[in-house]
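Milestone 3.1: sequence recovery, worked example.
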């Protein structure tokens, strides 16, 4: 792996960071699309979105504090502490049937996962130099993690029995996710202890936030990323429940559909990252991605039959557009920062918790005005808004 980008790294930790990324991504993606269904066993479905919002609010606060935490204890300690809390949370899902304990673990899980992503961002930026290959580096990093995203629903399908859904249906999935966290912790503990550190910049969060949003390009790429994360939040929470309760697919079938649906993240992001570095830049690809995502999401609102082929095709198209947006937002942003810009990276990563606050709130309002399928039409209109910030970006090419 290191030899793929021999001139882009200051140290010898790139392979270690990629291995940690692979294990942590695999553990997370195994449970990504089943957790809302798991929660719906213990709580009314209307509360599930509220729980996601509450956990994301906690993470929002933690990410605002993250630069100061890194300044005080370092990225290494933050990563280890976050992984330990995640081990506890996933362990609870694997063995407990207590609604109260599961709720507490859910809030912890939603709060610490973005902190782990934040830590990996800092590690990778500390190892990288130069911006001319950022698209290739970031797309390679994303493709590694997204490879686990693609295979995870298929593994879920194998581990989940057909028929009625109970808490026991998901135990094996959470157990596997828990087991993957152990080697991930050990890789970070042993492999990243001596990583060379840049001294992080730290200023008033209010001052840094004003500086961030005063920059037109950072403001527009933040908006693009936020819209993408809102798309993810709706799809993660509502699509599995909708396909199961409204269309009639069982969990194993949904797992196979999602495996095919997620292939664009592996197929397209790496070549798109190289294309953005060498030829097009990010702006055109972003615009195209928002159009594909908006149109295909709108189609979801009019499909009422349990056709495996039709649903899988449309879901594949939604993620084709999303993969375009994801790799371009990551590439564009990280061409403008380095490992010492912990404040800027922390602000950029606020898009995820913000999306899980904003997304379920808008979805709840949309659900009060019509049937469940209308939320996908609403989401389509939201994704069309992405054309505005994308069109106003200044290309790096």
């Amino acid at each position: 792996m290191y030899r793929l980008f021999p001139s882009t790294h200051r140290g010898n930790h790139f392979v270690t960071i990629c291995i940690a990324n692979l294990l942590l991504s695999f553990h997370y993606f195994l449970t990504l699309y089943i957790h809302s269904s798991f929660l719906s066993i213990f709580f009314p479905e209307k509360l599930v979105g509220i729980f996601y919002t509450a956990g994301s609010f906690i993470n929002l606060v933690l990410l605002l504090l993250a630069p100061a935490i890194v300044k005080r204890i370092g990225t290494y300690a933050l990563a280890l502490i976050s992984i330990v809390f995640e081990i506890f949370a996933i362990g609870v899902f694997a063995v407990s049937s207590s609604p109260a304990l599961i709720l507490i673990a859910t809030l912890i899980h939603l709060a610490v996962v973005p902190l782990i992503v934040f830590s990996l961002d800092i590690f990778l930026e500390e190892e990288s130099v130069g911006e001319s290959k950022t698209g290739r580096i970031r797309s390679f990093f994303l493709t590694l993690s997204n490879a686990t995203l693609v295979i995870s629903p298929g593994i879920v399908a194998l581990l989940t029995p057909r028929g009625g859904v109970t808490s026991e249906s998901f135990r094996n999935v959470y157990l596997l996710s828990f087991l993957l966290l152990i080697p991930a912790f050990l890789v970070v503990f042993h492999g990243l202890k001596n990583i060379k550190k840049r001294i992080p910049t730290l200023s008033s969060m209010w001052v840094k936030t004003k500086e961030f949003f005063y920059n037109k390009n950072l403001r527009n790429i933040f908006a693009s990323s936020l819209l993408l994360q809102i798309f993810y939040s709706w799809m993660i929470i509502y699509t599995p429940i909708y396909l199961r309760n409204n269309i009639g697919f069982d969990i194993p079938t949904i797992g196979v559909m999602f495996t095919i649906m997620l292939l664009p993240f592996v197929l397209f992001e790496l070549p798109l990252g190289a294309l953005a570095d060498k030829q097009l830049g990010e702006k055109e690809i972003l615009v195209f991605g928002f159009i594909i995502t908006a149109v295909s999401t709108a189609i979801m609102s009019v499909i009422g039959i349990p056709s495996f082929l039709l649903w899988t095709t449309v879901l594949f198209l939604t993620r084709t557009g999303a993969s375009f947006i994801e790799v371009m937002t990551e590439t564009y942003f990280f061409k403008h920062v380095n490992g010492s810009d912990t404040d800027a990276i922390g602000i950029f990563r606020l898009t995820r918790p913000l999306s899980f606050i904003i997304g379920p709130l808008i979805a709840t309002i949309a659900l009060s005005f019509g049937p469940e399928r209308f939320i996908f039409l609403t989401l389509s209109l939201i994704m069309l808004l992405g054309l505005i910030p994308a069109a106003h970006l200044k290309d790096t090419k």
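Residues 1-11 have pLDDT under 50 and may be disordered. The chain has 18 helices and no strands.
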